[in-house]
Amino acid sequence: MIDWEAMRKLALLIGVSEYEPDLTSLPAARKDVEAVKQVLEHPDMGEFSEVRCLINPDTQEMQVAIETVFSNSTRDDLILLYFSGHGIKDESGRLYLATRRTRKNSQGELIRSTAVTASFVQENMSKSRSKRQVIVLDCCFSGAFAEGLLAKDDGSIDIRSQLGGEDLGREGRAVLTSSTSTQYSFENKSNLSIYTEYIVEGISTGAADLDGDSVISIDELHEYARRKVQEAAPAMKPEIYAVKQGYRIFLAKAPIGDPRLRYRKEVENCAIRGEISPTGRRMLDYVRETLGLETTETSVIEDEVLKPYREYNQNLQQYEQALVEAVQQEYPFSEYTLNELSRYQKILRLRNEDVAPIKERIAQQQQAIQLTGDSRSVKLTSGEDNHSALRSITLPIIPSVDSIVNLLRSRINYLLLAGSVVIGVLVVLVVTNYSRLPASNKVATKDVSLLYTLSEHSSPVSSVAITPNGQTLASGSHDKAIRLWNLSSGKTARSPLYGHKDPVLSIAISPNGHLLASGGLDNSIKLWDLSTKENNRTLEGHVGWVTAVAISSDGKILASGSSDNTIKLWEIATGTPIHTLFNQAPILAVTISPDNQILASSSTDKTVKLWDLSTGKLLRALEGHASWVDAIAISPNGQILASGSLDKTIKLWELGTGRLLRTLEGHKYSVSSIAISPDGQILISGGFDGEIRTWNLQKGSLIRAFKAHSAQVVSLAISKDEKILVSGSADSTIKTWHIKF
User: What pTM did the predictor assign?
Assistant: First the structure.
């Protein structure tokens, strides 16, 4: 625990809202300082002993204040320097913090003596005795200087070299920035700068306590603010740079057992892109009643959580309206109009990929008008009428296959965000849809024989695993049970293992076969002794569903992935959490390389990420899939990673370099599960249509395909002797197969 009494916490908050005519004013800066001051001084939040505010200082005033706060500190002090205002780069790439007197000369060059250089800040940080230092820069790097002054600028700010330092004797230093490039960082509709708004929200509500340990660390605060900023303004890319233990500097306290915080977490779990499903609404109503909260309180919380999504959608609508109006004036566009649209896109903080669908839609609409030769045939307006008009003229009939896939994709949203009721509904709908699907073309299915169909589970089977000795099969299900089976006979070995309050979503067995780990919809992980069939330990810390678990080959580390966008690494012997890894979206699968060097995860963000298992550091992100990556597996030699996606493809990657080796195509529907044979020669994949395919891993060629289940193949496992393949399905059955590999 942190000794809050012994830690002296000092802050200098600088806001510059008024500038010389060369720079635009930033009214939000003054309000930013006031808002940050409130949460830092609050006894139940930041509990800072000294907070000094400096509004619109000149250069000397700012320098004196910065030097004073760092020089007057002791070793155990935590020093926070916050700046809201313009950040400027000169022609040499050096970063400056603008003061109210900052200006440029007649040649348009920065008069350096009118601004505070980052090197001055770094020098004072290095001289300070404090071993905990935090810098927060909510800067508009794209101020009035950007176009004229930065003609040779590549758009990036090297914060690490200019403020990071190499202070090996310090406990830690962290620098947080709202933007690292020449991007707009304007005030939000709340009258605060957008990054500051979510920093304040994360502390004041406790929502930034991502790991639920009742304290908010710098990395948690930044991660919370970054997520929120990118939900509202995807073009902005807040970053954190840390030296040594800077990531783990504890900045504030979070409320313990606050029902409002728990409700907020539930809303965040139920909201995807600003929408709450009908079932999600029922869940939230139930949670509200359970926690004893008033609807007035929960409505405010929901508005806060959904606000960034709504602002993003509003910005899209505003851009579309501007584009429609521009098309009405002239088409094709002049260079002037293109520049104006580009500037407006930046002001709205939208990326090219955000506006691309709008541009394509309007362009198609305009082409349709030109083809008909009658501009009156379509009324160019933004919104639903515009979309309907476009569909009626330009869009082809959607193939039934795509319709089904899109329908299933929407149901997966429900599966991740709603409760066990939806899971049951999902199974019925999936079975109904796929009962009408045409039979797949079979390839060499004579080498496949069904051994047993295990039907003891009363709900969808979520995960299957086989003990290393090949004698026992374990299965987890949405019926909350974990069942153990004799793999040879197909008989239930013993009574089910019950412990989870909600559906079991994932299981894994240790290399020695003595321990089983399970993750559930109840946000918990349970460790079971397979010899006694007892639950030895429950690991808690996730604030969302535990969707995936994996155990290292030495049996020492457990990795758990969750819908709360995090991966946690645990020491199995003690149940102690080691690292929390932050992702941008819910985790769908995790696996660990045979040499225990790399942890791989997949997510709804369409990526596979590789992490250093010992440090928790992100090594690289593998991008290439067009939709959610639902399943991953690593070959026994640790050289190849396979990933299966809702985009119907399997991708093979070189694990050491992240290089894409090949893409396997053939599944007619989403790929929902994959496994690799113990000899590393065969890849097995399961699909949403209940089909199983086997592939030559080295050549990427299809060996066989056969219909295995009446619904999605959720999980696959292969015995070490390669004699038996096990498939678990959303049709509530498990099947064991003899396949000639």
Answer: 0.51
**SS3 per-residue string spanning 129-187:** CCCEEEEEEEEECCCCHHHHHCCCCCCECCHHHHHHCCCCCCCEEEEEECCCECCCCCE
Same-domain status, 269 and 242: no
CATH number of the structural domain spanning residue 37? 3.40.50.1460
Domain contains 695: no
Would you give the DSSP letter of residue 408?
H
DSSP codes, 348-374: TT--HHHHHHHHHHHHHHHHHHHHHT-
How many domains are there within the chain? 2
DSSP 3-state percent helix, strand, coil across the chain (nearest 5)? 30, 30, 40
Residue 182: its pLDDT value, please? Answer: 42
Q: What is residue 537's predicted lDDT score, i.e. its pLDDT? A: 94
- The size of the chain, in residues, is 741
Note whether 64 and 190 are same-domain residues.
yes
Mean pLDDT of 128-133: 89
Q: In 142-154, which positions are buried (b, 16+ CB within 10 angstroms) versus exposed (e)?
A: bbbbbeebbeebe
pLDDT, position 366: 60
Q: Could you give the strand order of the β-sheet that contains 650-654, starting from the edge strand earlier in sequence? A: 629-634, 640-645, 650-654, 660-664
Highest mean pLDDT among 335-344, 384-393, 394-403, 487-496: 487-496
Q: Are 580 and 568 in contact (CB under 8 A)?
A: yes
Position 244: which residue type? Answer: K
Q: Which residue from 444, 451, 442, 453 is spatially nearest to 706, judged by alpha carbons? A: 442
Contact 677, 718 (CB under 8 A): yes
Choose the final residue of a domain: 219, 253, 287: 253
**Residue 197 falls in which region: left (phi positive, over 0), alpha (psi -120 to 50) or beta:** alpha
Whether residue 31 is found in the same domain as residue 127: yes
Strand arrangement, sheet containing 713-718: 448-454, 734-739, 724-729, 713-718
Query: 717: pLDDT confidence band, cut at 50, 70 and 90?
Result: very high
| 193 DSSP 8-state letter | B
- Hey, how many other C-beta atoms are within 10 angstroms of the C-beta on 627? 16
Query: Which contacts of 310-315 are long-range, i.e. CB under 8 A and separated by 24 or more positions?
Result: 310/274, 311/188, 311/189, 311/232, 311/233, 312/231, 312/232, 312/233, 312/234, 312/274, 313/274, 315/233, 315/348, 315/349, 315/350
Instruction: Report pLDDT digits (tens) over 652-706.
Output: 999 999 999 999 999 998 999 999 999 999 999 999 989 999 999 999 999 999 9
Encoding tokens for residue 302?
A: 């929901």
Q: How far is CA 389 from CA 313, 359, 360, in A?
A: 20, 15, 14
Q: Residue 708 falls within a domain, yes or no?
A: no
Direct distance between the N- and C-terminal alpha carbons of the chain, in angstroms, rounded to an integer:
54
Q: Is the pLDDT of residue 729 over 80?
A: yes
Query: What is the spatial distance between Cα 661 and Cα 624, in angstroms, rounded to a whole number?
Result: 12
248 and 358, same structural domain?
A: no
Can you say whether the dihedral through the CA atoms of 412, 415, 417, 418 is positive or negative?
positive
The count of C-alpha atoms lying within 13 angstroms of the C-alpha of 497, restricted to the half-sphere facing its C-beta, is: 26
Determine contact, residues 179/252, Cβ cutoff 8 Å: no
Q: What is the pLDDT of residues 536-580, one digit of tens each?
A: 899 999 988 999 999 999 999 999 999 888 999 999 999 999 999
Confidence band of 445 (pLDDT split at 50, 70, 90): low
Same domain, residue pair 331 and 190: no
Distance (Å, whole) CA 658 – CA 643: 12
